[in-house]
Amino acid sequence: MDPIQEFKDEKKVRIASYAQNQELQNASKDFLISSNKEQYSYNFTWMGRPIIQYPQDMLAMQELIWDIQPDLIIETGIAHGGSLIFYASIMELIGKGKVLGIDIDIRPHNRKEIEQHPMFKRIEMIQGSSTSQETYEQVKAHADRATTIMVCLDSNHTHDHVLKELELYAPFTSVGSYCVVFDTVVELLPDDMFPNRPWSVGDNPMTAMDAYLNDHPEFEIDQQIDNKLLVSVAPRGYLKRLR
């Protein structure tokens, strides 16, 4: 057998087995709860900018970007710009593509750092509500010029907001590509972890995603990514477009 294919097959079997490994699943859940309490995801940077993500999710995103080789990545939610720069750096290695970031409030100090970064050459930003018609039209103009598109949703995490973002932007996802809904983990964490946030258990990205999937069979949850990562802020949130 081809040793490269043999390695891939072994990996596939191993990853699938994690779904039935209760000890591993329990350890994963315990770590997610403990690490979220301690703001673990705020500890990392990419090429100098805070990324506010779990390293596991960023490694998964790197794999997807490299495999899909998109012309355009649409991301709602910019914050410090670390994920924009991360995606742009992978696209720079591929040698093509743009990252389009959308945020209702791009703070001046963050904008300055992003615009001065070497990867800014592959980044464009829109300041405005991701759910407004004006913003949507601007994003559509970019999407109309692209062939292969990925979508990442990571702004306001309430059910209504994320559902509206899915309705607007998930259709831009090209067949075979992904719409990734971040922070679905909110549904799996203790409700008292979000006392000062408008989202909570029962009102969050996962509940919005489930509502969207009920009416959109063209997307399915990529369970293999869940099984592989174990620790993720986006459990069940990697949605692959099938048709």
Provide key terms for this protein:
about 240 residues, Rossmann fold, seven-stranded mixed β-sheet, two-stranded antiparallel sheet, globular
Protein architecture, described:
It is a single chain. It is built from 9 helices and 9 strands. It has one domain: Vaccinia Virus protein VP39 (Rossmann fold, 3-Layer(aba) Sandwich), CATH 3.40.50. The model has no long low-confidence stretch (mean pLDDT 97). It is globular. The strands form 2 sheets. It has a 7-stranded mixed sheet, with helices on both faces. It is of the alpha/beta class. α7 links the parallel β6 and β7.
The helix-and-strand class reads alpha/beta
Radius of gyration: 18 Å
CATH level 3 topology: Rossmann fold
Number of helical elements: 9
- What's the domain count? 1
Net shape: globular
Report the uncertain regions: none
Strand content: 5-15%
